[in-house]
Amino acid sequence: MANLTIVGVDDEYPALQLIRQYCDQIEDISLLNTFQNPEEALEYLKETRVDLVILDINMPYMSGIELLQQLPYKPLCIFLTLETQYAVKAFELDVVHYLVKPVDFETFRRAVNKAKDFLQFKNSSENKKQEDFIMFKSNYIMNKVFLEDIRWIQGFGEYIILVTPLKKYMILERMSNFEEKFQDLGFIRIHKSYIVLAAHISSYDAANVYLKDGEKLPLGRTYKSFLKSYMQ
C-alpha cells in the first residue's frame, strides 16, 4: 500500500485538530503539516510536493479552490468544508472527495483510502502495457481510456459519467447509445443508470452488484435475469 503524504489547510483550528486526530488513526499515511493561513500553505506546497491536500474552501485571503489552481503541480485533493454549492466545481477539478462538515471518522477514512487507491493505481500503471481501449469526446477533447481502468458508467439523462480511478469524464451521450456502441467489448447494463464491465464483477445478490475493487452498485430488477444468464 502506498504511503500517502498529506497537508491539511483550514482557517479554523478545531478543524485542523480533527484532521490530525483522524489521520493518526489511519495506516500508511503521513500528515506532513497543517496550516490555518492558505497563503502560507501555498508557499509550503510550492516547495514540498505532497500526494494529497485536505482543503477548506471558504477561507480568508484565498479560497481552497484558488489555492489548488495556483499550485505548479496537481496533487490529489479532498475538500472538507461547510459549503455545499461548490460540488460542481469540485467535479471539474477532479477532486477525490467532497466532504461536508461535520464529518465522522469513517467517512473521512473512506475518503482518504480512496486517495490511497488512486495513488497506488497511478504508480502501478505508469509502465503498464494495455491494449483494449475506447475513444470518446468529453469537454471538446478526444480521450483515450483503457477498458481495465473503467470502473463504471452512470447515466444522467442526456449525459453519462465515465468513472476511472483517477478521473471522471462527463460525456454528452445517452446510456442506450453507449451500451449499443460498446456492447461487444464486454459492457453490461445492471441498472437503468449503471453500466459496468462484466470482467470487473466479483459477485451479486438480489439488490447489488459487487465489483472486484470493492465498490457496490445497485442492481435493477429488470436486469437481474440478464445478468444471471450473462455470468453463467
UniProtKB/TrEMBL annotation:
Positions of modified residues (4-aspartylphosphate): D56
InterPro entries: CheY-like_superfamily, LytR-like, LytTR_DNA-bd_dom, Sig_transdc_resp-reg_receiver
Pfam families: LytTR (PF04397), Response_reg (PF00072)
Residue ranges crossing the lipid bilayer per the database entry: none
Domain HTH LytTR-type: 147-232
Domain annotation Response regulatory: ranges: 5-116
Keyword field contains Phosphoprotein: yes
Protein name: Transcriptional regulator
